[in-house]
Amino acid sequence: MSDDLHFEVLVAGAGAAGLLAAIRAAERGRRTLLVEKNTKAGVKILMSGGTRCNLTQNTDARGIIAAYGDQGRFLHSALARLDPMGVVKLFHAEGVLTKVEETNKIFPVSDSAVDVRDALVRRLERTTAELALGEPVQNIERHQAGFVVMTPRRRVLCDRLILTVGGKSYPGCGTRGDGYAWAEQFGHTLIPPRPALVPLVTHESWVHALSGLTLPDVGVATVVSSRAPPDLQIPPHVLRSVRGRKKNSPLSADRGSLLFTHRGLSGPVVLNVSRAISGHALPSAFDIELDLLPDLKLDALDAELQQAAAADGKRTVANLAARYLPRRLIEALLERLQIPPEMKSAEFGKSPRRALAEAIKQTRIPIAGTLGFAKAEVTAGGVSLDEVDSHTMQSKLVPNLYFAGELLDLDGPIGGYNFQAAFATGWLAGESV
User: Fold this and answer.
1) Residues 155 and 274 both lie in one domain
2) What are the start-end ranges of the H helices in 106-165?
């Protein structure tokens, strides 16, 4: 092991937040070391967005803040330094042009996450910062006004320490919750980490049989199941994102693309509502309610089915309803209702017709759990925001200790919001050290 080395700033974790923190600190003249346990930087960047990397959302700072609910207030100062347009300009300056898709997600024109990662590494390389890959942090201790950081290779002294080691989502990227122990070691409160933006599991075989089917526009709500115990308690971290929630109203709701899988449900709309379930100790106490035709009211759908049946009595019920939804799905719903798909429309009376309309508008799917951190896009929970100065990202408990990125108790919806928060908090931390 070499003799002690001294840096003004040490950044632990070369993900989105860590790269921005190290870049900004070094550009401000700080002697900076960025250490990363993986053999390459930005591993999670490389696999995000289906390897396309959804950089941010086509909105302003207020839009990002609103999307985070109660957590959004914490991001005011960070977004004042680096808002979505600032992120876009940063990558344009590095030669990575961007595009806005219909969902308002912003991607690189090349659809290549490698281009995103490489742009950040190039900018880092133009500074005096040192990047140490394949060098995990093993231990951290206070040393006078700074810290001693131990790695397998050396003992490093630093005046200021920025922790950007991520949460626990996608542990294959190396994000296995290392930072939580260090935060607790320094007296910080840890909001229990849990998977967020995670696919849901159900034991319903009819759902499994539809695996691979995608619906582009579905209303999805998380509701308390009739199977739930009468004394079921909803934790504050679940309720805090549901402002003004009335009794018996959904815990979470959204509208968007849904994917049936061999295990259950996925797709952007499901990932967005998953937080309410993943944050509870009893996920089987909840159902997902699907509105498969969110633009059509129940009574209007019933009336349309009635008119269509009257207009062509020889047509089968399956063919009649397949004008609205994929036939595979219609046949699955009819089978659950015990309505023969080959039934003629002339025989499609009021009761079965109403039952099908309600199934299309209000199908409930019992949930058994989630796919956990292994498939979660982000981690909810982490270092309590109450103990971090949002104007600087510095710990309120330990001078010269900073946090940024997913290690914080920050989790936003799908659509580039989480990268935006990581970029902005990392940039602010680097600007503050």
Assistant:
1) no
2) 113-125
CB burial of 407-419 (b: ≥16 within 10 Å; e: otherwise) equals bbbbbbbbbbbbb
Query: Which ranges of 43-185 does DSSP label H, i.e. alpha helix?
Result: 43-47, 61-67, 76-81, 84-93, 113-125, 178-185
Cα distances (angstroms) measured from residue 243 to each of 69, 219, 409: 8, 19, 18
Q: Where are the alpha helices (DSSP H) in 322-416?
A: 327-336, 350-362
**CB of 348 closer than 8 Å to CB of 157:** no
Q: What is the domain extent for residue 322?
A: 199-371
Q: What are phi and psi of 168, to 5 degrees?
A: -130, 0
Look up the CATH number of the domain holding residue 122: 3.50.50.60
Output DSSP code: residue 256.
E
The enclosing domain of 340 has a CATH number of: 1.10.8.100
Instruction: Kindly tell me the burial class for residue 239, based on how many C-beta atoms sit within 10 Å of its own C-beta (0-12, 13-18, 19 or more).
Output: middle
Indicate the residue type of 17.
A
Q: 148: which strand partners?
A: 141, 157
* Residue among 215, 383, 370, 186 nearest 277 (CA): 370
pLDDT, block means (10 residues), the chain with 433 residues: 78 98 98 97 92 97 95 97 98 98 96 98 98 97 94 97 91 79 96 94 97 97 89 69 55 94 97 88 91 97 96 94 96 97 94 97 96 92 97 98 97 96 98 98
Listed in sequence order, the residues at least 6 apart from 340 whose beta carbon sits closer than 8 Å to its beta carbon are: 317, 334
Kindly report the pTM of this predicted structure: 0.91
How far from each other are the two terminal CA atoms of the chain, in whole angstroms? 28
Gap between the Cα atoms of 406 and 150, Å rounded: 22
pLDDT of residue 248: 62
Question: What is the sign of the dihedral through the CA atoms of 14, 19, 21 and 27?
Answer: positive
How many domains is the chain partitioned into structurally? Answer: 2
Question: Who's near 296: CB < 8 A, 6+ residues apart?
Answer: 304, 361
pLDDT of residue 217: 97
pLDDT at 280 (0 to 100): 82
**Residue pair 389/43 in contact by the 8 Å Cβ criterion:** no
Strand ranges (E), 144-278: 146-150, 155-163, 190-196, 200-201, 214-224, 252-260, 264-266
